[in-house]
Design brief:
Two copies of one chain form a homodimer. Chain A is of the alpha+beta class. Helix content of chain A is 26%, strand content 40%. Chain A contains three helices and four strands. The first copy, chain A, has a four-stranded mixed sheet. Chain A is globular and about 35 Å long. The model of chain A has no long low-confidence stretch (mean pLDDT 97). At the A-B interface, helix 1 and strand 4 of A face helix 1 and strand 4 of B.
Chain lengths: 78, 78
């Protein structure tokens, strides 16, 4: 089982990507964790270290995939 | 079965998104078509009508999701 992490900030673009892309991954192959960076601010550093520059972003196998554009990490950090 | 279309142009960013994201969709729920716009140029109009602005992009349920950035549609059109 591979690990995938979906980082978001609750924005409309994030919700659309979560519902339509992140939740469409094969649950038989991926264990998907959903992280709301506005609520779990202690994980902002972790996301940035993984290369996340904006949300929503999906990290699979350590590779960041930015899906459309909701907010920059600078805005998430506030 | 829902239809998903992954539009790309064979670029490195496209290949990475294809291998890691598009091929990770649940095959039990999605019928994923892979379209290389450099080879199937007649489908560029279709992609743009669906809202695709750059590749790689994944269209699910008529909603375009741009995954990272490989090339603009303007560059694809050439």
């Amino acid at each position: 089982m591979k690990k995938a992490v979906f980082y978001h900030a609750g924005c409309p673009v994030c919700v659309q990507a979560e519902d339509t892309v992140a939740k469409s991954l094969d649950a038989g192959r991926f264990d998907v964790e959903f992280v709301h960076l506005g609520e779990e601010r202690s994980r902002i550093d972790e996301a940035e270290k993984l290369g996340v520059e904006s949300v929503p972003a999906l990290v699979i196998d350590g590779q960041p995939f930015h899906i459309n554009f909701g907010a920059s990490m600078k805005d998430v950090r506030g």
